[in-house]
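Record format v2
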Amino acid sequence: MIPMQHFLVLSGILFSLGVYGVLARRSAVLILMAVELMLQAVSINFIAFAVYLAPDAFVGLIFAVFVITVAAAEVGLLLAIVLRIFRNQATANVDEVDVMRW
Amino acid sequence: MDWSLLVPEYILAGWAAMVVSLDLFWGRLRKEQLAYVAAAGALTATLVSLIWVNDSASFGNLLQVDNYTTFFRVFFGLIAFVICLASAQYVKDRLLHPGEYYALILLTVIGGTYMAAAKELLTAYISLELLSFSLYVLTSYAKFDLKSNEAGLKYMLLGAFSSAIFLYGMSLVYGVTKTTSFAGIASALSGDTSGIAFALMLGIVLMIAGLGFKVAAVPFHMWTPDAYEGAPLPITAFISAISKAAGFALFLKLFGQALLPMADDWRWIIAGLSAATMILGNLVAIQQHNIKRLLAYSSIGQAGFMLMGIAALTPHGPSDPASALLLYLVGYVITNLAAFVCVIVYYNQTGKDEIADFGGLAERAPFLALCLTIALFSLAGMPLFAGFATKFILFQTAAQQDLLWLSSIAVFMSFVSLYYYLGIIKQMYLVEPTEKARLPVPRMEYAVVAVLIVGVLLVGLYPQPLFNGVENATSALFQITQAAAAASAGL
């Protein structure tokens, strides 16, 4: 059987890629994709822990299902907001959405 | 499972559906009447939740209905009640689709309540997202207003990012403790944790980052000024009240119950965050010229003070810090709502929200100026008002738990905050108004402001009843921890 560490390293890499994407990308849609990557890293973590450490309890698996569900809702909501901005300003680039400044 | 424990939330959800369908199917209903319907729903749920005073029951190990939950049910219900009433005029004049607006406010209350009631990580996460999603939509509710769109985008992007971080922290804590229930985590952490120290610490730090975002702690505060400025004004008030209060309800539950055995490891992190938050929030507030942004930075500063209550928690210490924190939270929310309702009234009549626009308000609307002055003095922590009593108790409690340095910074920063609050008061009383005409007197809003100001004075002068309520709430919180500790000691 594959050792659990492999899954954790994979999820760590995915999570870091996601964080990098959020910080480096300028398009709202790409930032959203990077956040999805982070959420999938979380799901991998939960499933790996559930299968290897607590095989008789389903908490981790249920958690992963909920994470996926919430992520889907998040996409819907954010795309609605991005669409609104695109209609009003014809851009989805977070750099150009800067009516407010400190 | 005893489904009747969730009746207040059934009422809120049902009422939300009712408000939407009323808006949809009853064309002759005037739009501001929806506000009163929604407010009645919030009030009904609040009153019904009083059934569970001094009760303690668990809903399938997911939710705990005890004094802590009841306290927050009442607290959030009343916040929504005030916000609905304060929105009536604003929504009628400036927003489309009032039905969904009020329904979302009621749904937010459910999210906030379950954050306080959660007994395990998954429930806490789902309710956090319910609260956040409703607030994202409400923030970007003014569809054709560029500022509102932008505020919603920034709030939502950073919110999604931070909840992913929060989740990763949760997954690590789940991995090392093999359970998601708060009591289970506490008993797993009471034993030897040397083998799992690194993963555990990483998990805790990530969870602090995720929750720090919700309560707008530095360095996770970037969304706050923009979301506050762009959101419709009543929603700004709502975010400043419920997002912060619910964030701290969960913060306290998570760190006061589940992670309490590790307190010595995370206390210094929170203390550092608290110091950074109060310093940056209050210093940046000085140079703001928009009243929404000023109140945003002031609320960041206030979050710094509240974090002191978390930093002062100790594994075997008294529950005083938690009580002081809840007391401060109530004082802050009442005062902040009073200030915001005054700003809403002014904005409804003039459409202006720069601080310079408040020039000569004392001549144009003396009652409004007086109420705003009281609210600002209370936020700054002047005696007589809620701000002083609650600040005094919180700072004193922190000082007793070896955080004298933090208390000293907090006292100093309170003086700094007085400076920028006085700037607004100076505008209202010493500057000549550009227009002389008296502002009209909206009865509804003035009544709400008056009630809130009475609340500010009541908490300031006679905090004992509130203090008793808060003590009951926090003792329910710590009973569970002590029971878990006793159980693990017995093993």
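The radius of gyration of chain A is 17 Å.
The domain at 4-89 of chain A is CATH 1.10.287.3510 (Helix Hairpins).
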